[in-house]
Amino acid sequence: MVPDAQHGFEFVNRDAVEIDRRAAAWFFFTFYPKVLNERAGTVYLAPIADSSGRSLEAGKTYKLRVPEDMPAKQFWSLTVYDRATWAFIQNPLDRASLGSFNVPQMKANADGSVDLYFGPKAPAGLEMNWIPTMGREPYLWLRLYGPEDAFWTKAFKMPDVELMNP
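RE: above sequence
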């Protein structure tokens, strides 16, 4: 879900009452967690702005540093969708996501973290760390499968998405 211009979820605008979005929000934010338990087996984080608070934009390249100690018992994954269609972005690499299973093929930082890039063009030498956006406006889902205590106690803080080419 993406908040409206007032950073809320009104679901009413001058053109329509967005019943489908309202129903989806109710399901995901109220019903779904209560059915599972207090600590869901999968957590979806959806950053919609960069470290300066600007909305993610089409045609720009961004970086997300994923720490080595991601609090996921099973695995983590970052998937980039097209915000206009909510579908994967078709690209020559046929790559919509990267995650912990891809880390052995990626270039890692000295501290064990990996930088994931998403945008129209890969930074030089970092193609394995890149998700192509083909000029589309990105919408992110960062998933933690089997979130650990550090997530629930808020001891873990995910780094912000950084704009690479202002």
